[in-house]
Amino acid sequence: MDSLHIDGVTVRAGEHTLLDDLRLVVHPGELCALLGPSGAGKSTLMKAVLGVRKPASGRVRLGERPMTEAGPIGYVPQDDALHRVLTVEKALDYSAQLRLPSLSAEARHARITDVLTRVDLVQRRSVRVGRLSGGQRKRVSVAMELLTAPPVLVLDEPTSGLDPGMERRTMALFADLASEGRIVIVSTHAMASIQRCQVVVVLVAGKLAYAGPPAGCPEWFEALDMNGIFPAIAKHAPIVWAKKWTAAPASRTALTRPAPRLQPSGAASAPPPSTAAPAPSEPAPSEPAPSASPADRRRTAEAELAALKAKMGRPS
Ligand SMILES: Nc1ncnc2c1ncn2[C@@H]1O[C@H](COP(=O)(O)OP(=O)(O)OP(=O)(O)O)[C@@H](O)[C@H]1O
Ligand SMILES: [Mg+2]
Known about the structure:
Elements: E1 4-13, E2 16-26, E3 31-35, H1 42-50, E4 57-62, E5 65-66, E6 74-76, H2 88-99, H3 105-118, H4 134-146, E7 152-156, H5 164-179, E8 183-187, E9 199-204, E10 207-212, H6 217-220, H7 229-233, H8 238-247, H9 249-256, H10 294-312
Parallel strand pairs: 3-8, 3-9, 6-7, 7-8
Antiparallel strand pairs: 1-2, 1-4, 4-5, 9-10
Helix pairs in contact: 2-10, 3-4
The structure holds adenosine-5'-triphosphate and magnesium ion (MG).
Adenosine-5'-triphosphate binds next to β2 and α1.
C-alpha cells in the first residue's frame, strides 16, 4: 500500500488562499486527526485529498499515482447522506449495486455482511435507517464506504454530535480500520480520543502549524494538554505558528518518518489494535408512529433510490 503525499498544496478561492503550501505525508496504518479552529481549512484539505478541490499549485498523490487514478476513496461527509426510509441492508445494497455493478446478488449480500460485521451492525441490518441512533447511522455511512475496500478513508467530523461514549467507540473503530493497513483521516474538534491517532495535523488559517504525534502537540503550542491548544494558538497570529513550524526540524521529520510496519495480515504492528469494543446494542431511539401507507412508503423509497443514484454521481 502506498502512502498519501500532499506536496506543497495551495488552494485558492478568488483572492483568498484557503490552503497555503501544505506538505504532509500519511502512511498506511495511520489514523490522522485533522485539527484546527473553525475555518482553518480542514474540509478544504479533505476535498483536495478527494480530488474535488483542484489545487492552484502542488499535488496530492498516493505513492506515485495522482489521486484521480488511485481508485475509490472512502468519504463520509459531516452530514450523513443516508436515506432514512430504507433498511440498513437496502441502503447498502443499492449503494453496492451502483458502486460494484459486476457483483452478483449473492456476492453483494456477502460483502454487506462483511462491512456490517466490521462496524458491528449485523444485528441491525433489517432496521430502517431512521430508527438508528446517530452513532449507528455514522457507522452505516462508514460501512457504505467500506464496500469498495478503499485504501484511504476520509471522514469529516464524524464524531460531532455523538455522546462521549459513542465518540470513544467510533474513534476506536477508526483506529482499528487504520491498523489494518488503511490511511484514515478524520477531522475533529474532540480531544478525548486523540491519543489513538498516530498523527495529529493542526491547521491555522490554511497554514500547517504542527504535524506529529499527539504527545508532542500540547508542548509545541505551549499548552498544558490537548484541550488547551486552541486557546494557546489564539495567542499568536497564524503566520507566527506557520513560521515556527517551517523552521523546526520536526517539519522535516514529519515528511521522512518511517511508515508503521504492517503485519502480514495487513495489521499495523504499532500501535496495537484497539481493544475497545464497539457499541453492540444501544437502544434504538423510539420512532414516531409511521403515518405513511405501505404504498406511500414504497413511493418514498423509490424517490430515495433516485436521490441516492444522484448522490453517487458525485465525484468520489
Ligand atoms: N468555495 C469557497 N469560496 C471561498 N471561500 C471558501 C470556499 N470554501 C471554503 N471557503 C473558506 O475557506 C476557509 C476554510 O473553510 P473550511 O470549510 O475548509 O474550514 P474548516 O476548517 O473545515 O472549518 P469548520 O471547522 O468550521 O468545518 C473558510 O474561511 C471558508 O469560508
Ligand atoms: Mg469543516
